[in-house]
Amino acid sequence: MEIFVRRLIWFVVLCLAQVLVLNHIHVFHYATPLLFIYFIMKFPIGTTKWMLLLWGFFMGLIIDIFTNIPGVCAASLTAMSFLQPYLLQLFIPKEDYSTLSPSVKSLGMETFIKYAGTMTTLFCILFYTFETFNLFSFWDWLLRVVCSAIITIVLILVLENFNKN
Q1: CA separation, residue 42 to residues 68, 92, 138 (Å)
Q2: pTM assigned to the model
Q3: 8: Cα within 13 Å, side-chain hemisphere
Q4: pLDDT mean over 95-104
Q5: Confidence bin at 92 (pLDDT 50/70/90)
Q6: Burial code of 110-126, b = ≥16 C-beta within 10 A, e = fewer?
Q7: Which pLDDT value is given to residue 96?
Q8: Per-residue three-class SS string for 100-162
Q9: Contact 132, 15 (CB under 8 A)
Q10: With helix as H, strand as E and coil as C, how does 100-115 read?
Q11: CA 106/CA 97 separation, integer angstroms
């Protein structure tokens, strides 16, 4: 029960931060911090897939409702939720397979940055592809993906530094 309450608090805090603050930040009109994906990244590897998918879908749906972009966040975050356990397996030692929760402390800085970078870049690719739904302005799309991924990774590392246990 304590884990559920803690997740619910993180869910609410990250949704509010994204909707009220971060969605209004557009660095050079390209980079938008997408910090809410940190919520899905932090799920331990032993989490059931259906629970991960539900958390991801509902978080994406709430972000979509408050930002008026129907289905973009929900689809992107659900896809990221589906891929999270598989991507996490690439970055963790086999002996820590059942209960590892991804963090700088458990994975080490270099491995966590690789994990966070992969997850963030994947999300940004999906998000901006669904948002534009075309690749006619390829350079604009690529610049949005790269800039948003970089600023999001930096914010995740800052949040991870404050979240040390």
Answers
A1: 26, 13, 31
A2: 0.90
A3: 5
A4: 73
A5: confident
A6: ebbbebbebbbbbbbbb
A7: 57
A8: CCCCHHHHCHHHHHHHHHHHHHHHHHHHHHHHHCCCCCHHHHHHHHHHHHHHHHHHHHHHHHH
A9: no
A10: CCCCHHHHCHHHHHHH
A11: 12
d(CA 163, CA 150): 20
Structural tokens at position 125: 């690719």
Mean pLDDT across the stretch 45-68? Answer: 92
User: Which residue, chain included where needed, has tokens 């914010």?
Assistant: 155
> Which tokens go with 152?
């999001």
The answer on pLDDT for 165 being more than 60 is no
Measured distance CA(39)–CA(68) in Å, rounded: 21
